[in-house]
Amino acid sequence: MLHKCANPACTVPFRSLHDGKLFLAETFPSDINAPFDGNRRKIRRREHFWLCDACSSHFTLRFDATRGMLTVPLHEPVLPRYLTYAAGNAS
Fold this sequence. Notes:
Layout: E1 21-27, E2 45-51, H1 53-56, E3 59-64, E4 68-73, H2 80-88
Antiparallel strand pairs: 1-2, 3-4
């Protein structure tokens, strides 16, 4: 059950599917390195995550196998070294 925005820094409670953005993600249990027991259904798990209106305009969600669900900016900044390299080749 969804309780609040998936952004850890946000405390907006989940109230309606009409507000924000809903995500369906296949996640892996923390014991993914456990020996295979023949039941593939245990490997993947489908979970719903929700970002409120304010957070969904600035962030999206990305699943990392070691750290879990992460809140990441929608527009990742350009790396400074790329800007330096491009400026150096402009002449």
